[in-house]
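User: Before I run my own analysis I want an independent prediction to cross-check against. Here's the chain; please return only the structure tokens and, at the end, one sentence I can use as a sanity check.
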Amino acid sequence: MSPTPGHTSEDAAVRLILDLVARGEADSRSELAARLGIAPSTVGLRVQRLLDAGLLVEAGDGASRGGRRPRVLRLAPDSGVVLSVDLGGGHARIGRHDLSGALQQVHTFDIDLSDGPVATLDTLVPALRELTGEHRLHAVGVGLPGPVDITTGSVDQPSRMPGWPAFRVGEHLRASLDVPVVVDNDANLAALGEHRAQLGTTGHSITVKAGTAVGSGIIVAGDVHRGATSAAGDITHTRIDGSGDIPCSCGNTGCLETVASGASLVRQMRERGRSDVATTNDVLLLARDADPVATTLVRTAGTHLGQALSGVVNFFNPHAVFLTGSMSASEPFIAAVRSRVYEACHPLATQTLRIEAAVTGADAILHGAARLALDSLEFSATAA
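Assistant: Structure tokens:
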């Protein structure tokens, strides 16, 4: 777990101890010292910070292993929660998580991002307060459907978010909620949530969010890799051979999103006279019922995505590629992605590669936002 920008490595070390105890992977100072490979005295100082902050409690004595009986560590009953937010074009999903990251409750409601940031976020705040209830709120993680400058918590050159560019989402919410608020692109958060659920804090993966639009995130050694301008991992605007000259929202033509997204499938079905098709799910339902045109389009979309991914897999050599979003529910789509990647990549790059649907499903962004919020917690200033 690397430090969140602006926080210290000591914060990260204390957060790791909190995470291990919260997840039940260690329950005493001696177990933590053995697990982390650091001196018991160092573990003791870091545990004390968590005890002083009211996040951990000592819950009696554990079993002896030949010496003193260790004091058992547990999350405090009132240790508090973090909140997660997934903002889409027409909806918001918010979640409440305990300090292990476990999702306790989800609330979904309609919004319209075209109303602008102030109106949208001011609608969000009462819902976040209601979800918090009587719990102690530590931090909020927010996923936005566009490129994000994480140093400012603002959207940078979004395609479909009028009025949002340069608006500091994190600062606006923090002023209302009085807790740290961290913001990132929704595909990065989906990648973080899925990776931590499947591979923990080690390993490398790519997660592709394939729904109405296409987005992707890269995880290196358990953390989001954002690149120099927070654009790393975005395969959305990769030029696809044979895609034609269909205009893309980025200003170019023939991008992956124009031939492999749910919106592109709807457009192609309607161009073939299927005026009854209005959503990605309409296309997927037709494919599930063996409609030949829909099935072909879904498979072709998977092949296009596999083409875009093959170069990334060859270059990056990840442990896994996870697929989330509505398209990931289609086995023909996933099979086409696999087939193209395995065909186009070097055998060493695919020797142990997993390509599969994400286990976190529709909650991937919420899980990632919660992990980002937990990774933002500060302890270095807490009295020992």
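Sanity check: The chain has three domains: 9-75, 81-190+366-374, 199-365.
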